[in-house]
Amino acid sequence: MSGLVLVGAGTMGVNIAALALGHGLPVTLVDLDTAILDRAATGIRTALRHGQLMGALPADTPVATARTTTDLTSVAGAEVVIEAVTENAECKAKLLAEVAGLVSPGTPLVSNTSGIPIDELAGAVPRPEDVIGTHFMNPTYLIGTTEVVRGPRTSEPTLRAVTVLLARMGRRSVVVNDSPGFVTSRLLHPMINDAARLVQAGTATVEQVDELMRGCLGHPTGPLRTADLIGLDNLADALRVLADRTGETRYAPCELLLAKVADGHHGRKSGRGFYDYGKVLS
Length: 282
Prior knowledge:
Elements: E1 4-7, H1 11-22, E2 27-30, H2 34-53, E3 66-69, E4 80-83, H3 89-100, E5 109-112, H4 118-122, E6 131-135, E7 145-150, H5 156-168, E8 172-177, H6 184-200, H7 206-217, H8 223-230, H9 232-246, H10 255-262
Parallel strand pairs: 1-2, 1-4, 2-3, 4-5, 5-6, 7-8
Antiparallel strand pairs: 6-7
């Protein structure tokens, strides 16, 4: 598989790029901001080193070449396009519509989203059968399973092309049907929100919540440390999607989470979230 183009060079774009490159798949990374692309190049190198040290990337596969550009027309000729821009339905739909006008019919258009319904995004393009969703977890190069979301209009060839690509990237695909939040976010994000509410109410500290979830219920990291890894801004956006699309107010991000986002405490990527990491991590 060649001709993978990623649009969006933020945290998830960097992670997905590192995963593909580490499995020998060349990547073109597109973003409108050259400063973001410069940071992404550093982030990809860091992710590759980490993945290699953890034994999560194949040691016998040469790392492929990444090309960065601000020119969206670079998607022309792509075999698969993955958008990994901000978790905003309007922004994603607008981008997918632009990309659809630049690629050949039948090119899979993949939205990497934690919960925006895929058919909602597919309605913005002339060939909705080309649109499919993925929900890569962070850090993508360490987590071996990827949630794949098939919309009601997603075609079999689109699904097949994406699952083949994921297999080439060493990922196991679990294909689910379209729904706000799909499976992982629908279960995980409200749990994190409730954990933050317990801290907000003074029932327990951040450390106590995570310690109980790890020690008593077997959660590998604890929900609030997991939230820092996801990114608190991304988490708040995903919870708003759930609340808006389901009409259930329990999904609305709690006050403590919103306050941290407003203060710029977005988790590991900013150096501080529910925990203090001492410095901004690249």
